[in-house]
Amino acid sequence: MSSVAQVEKSNLIKALQTRQQQDGYISDEAIENIAEEFNLPLVDVEGVVSFYTQFKRVAPGKYQIMVCDGTACHIIGSTLILNWLTDALGIMDGETDEDGLFSLECVACLGCCSLAPVISVNGKIYGKLDRKKLLKIINSFKKKEAAGA
Ligand code: FES
């Protein structure tokens, strides 16, 4: 069995990044596969995954909500946006709800600061948000799901 020091760490990270791109997160199965591929103990691969914040261990929801916490959004109210979403969805930053419908993640600048405060849902940007506008967006997804879309 090798150690992380013996294998090219950059190759290990690249394999993990590729797997995360495919699956949206790093599952237990992915860790087992990669440990086998690199001939490493599971605990070593788990250690690398938990060390780097870029790796997610929780499967994302069908609707992946990213709350911008860059400077412009933070000043205008990203904390409130996150609190309203937490209340509406019952999940915290970094979590996915029980139905696998919504996941919530705070991120750095989403690149459209003039629209602050901003969220993105599956890559689509929603800006100049207030509580009413935010809840309308969330409810539209909930209604869509209830209608079986
Ligand atoms: S700081 Fe939020 S989009 Fe730039």
How do you describe this structure in short?
By secondary structure, this protein is of the alpha+beta class.
Describe the protein's architecture and organization.
This protein is an alpha+beta fold and 149 residues long. It folds into two domains: 9-51, no CATH class; 63-146, Glutaredoxin (3-Layer(aba) Sandwich). It is built from six helices and four strands; from the N terminus they run αααβααβββα. The chain has helices at 9-23, 28-38, 42-51, 71-76, 78-89, 131-146, and strands at 63-68, 102-107, 119-121, 124-126. Strands 2-1-3-4 form a four-stranded mixed sheet, with helices on one face. Helix 1 packs antiparallel against helix 2 (28-38) and helix 5 packs parallel to helix 6. It is elongated. The model has no long low-confidence stretch (mean pLDDT 93). Bound molecules: FE2/S2 (inorganic) cluster. The site of FE2/S2 (inorganic) cluster has 12 residues, from helix 4.
Which superfamily, in CATH terms, is the homologous superfamily of the largest domain?
A: Glutaredoxin
Strand order of the largest sheet: 2-1-3-4
| Mean pLDDT across residues | 93
Q: Poorly predicted ranges (pLDDT <50, ≥5 residues)? A: none
How is the main sheet built?
A: 4 strands, mixed
Helix content: 40-55%
List all distinct small molecules, including ions and cofactors, that are bound in this structure.
FE2/S2 (inorganic) cluster
Report the CATH topology name of the largest domain.
Answer: Glutaredoxin
Notable features of this structure?
149 residues, Glutaredoxin, 4 strands, elongated, binds FE2/S2 (inorganic) cluster, alpha+beta, 4-stranded mixed sheet
